[in-house]
Specification:
Layout: E1 5-10, E2 13-18, E3 34-37, H1 43-57, E4 63-68, E5 74-79, H2 85-96, E6 107-114, E7 117-124, H3 125-137, E8 141-147, E9 159-162, E10 171-172
Parallel strand pairs: 1-4, 4-8
Antiparallel strand pairs: 1-2, 2-3, 5-7, 6-7, 6-10, 8-9
Length: 179
């Protein structure tokens, strides 16, 4: 399911954004297509109009990439092994032990090796589940989940599942479920 729209979820509201060609980046030259504040009296109606806009533009299915705010993501780093991807994966896992209140089995992470360092982005699996449930409850079809990665917190946007193209796949430390 290819998405050309993104739903940015934040603590104070939701914004509908247009994805640039390729589907992994936001068209930063354009303002949000629509916004809805959580404290707005007609929040559900506003989100419903967003869903209708996406469904209308895509021929019926309201596929969106969900974007999580940085406040829901832990960005950290570890030293690369200098060996191979498998060794680096082990270093990433070790770096996450005790870094959050969650067990490793309850985390989803993405990482990239940059100049001898492992840049890591991690989110609680329950946060992803809540984001997907919100989108589905409002008629959207989640096609992937990305992190906001503002202010250079991560090289590119961390990917936490789904179909947006990416050079490094997200890893779920429990049985993977499709987005």
């Amino acid at each position: 399911m290819a998405a050309t729209f993104a739903l940015h979820l934040d603590h104070d509201g939701v914004s509908l954004l247009h994805l640039a060609e390729g589907g992994a980046e936001i068209d930063t030259m354009q303002p949000p297509l629509a916004t809805a504040g959580l404290d707005d009296d007609d929040f559900d109606a506003q989100v419903g109009r967003m869903q209708a806009r996406v469904a209308g533009a895509s021929g019926g299915e309201a596929a969106v990439v969900l974007i999580l705010p940085d406040s829901q993501i832990l960005y950290t780093r570890a030293r690369a092994s200098g060996l191979d991807r498998e060794a680096d994966e082990g270093r990433v896992r070790n770096a996450l032990v005790g870094a959050t209140p969650y067990d490793l089995a309850e985390l989803v992470y993405d990482w990239r090796e940059v100049d001898g360092a492992l840049e890591i982005a991690v989110v609680a699996a329950e946060t992803l589940d809540e984001a997907r449930a919100f989108a589905e409850a409002h008629g959207f079809a989640p096609a992937g989940v990305l992190g906001e990665a503002a202010r250079g917190a991560f090289p590119g946007r961390p990917r936490f599942g789904g179909s947006p193209p990416q050079d490094a796949p997200a890893t779920r430390l429990r049985h993977a479920r499709s987005c």
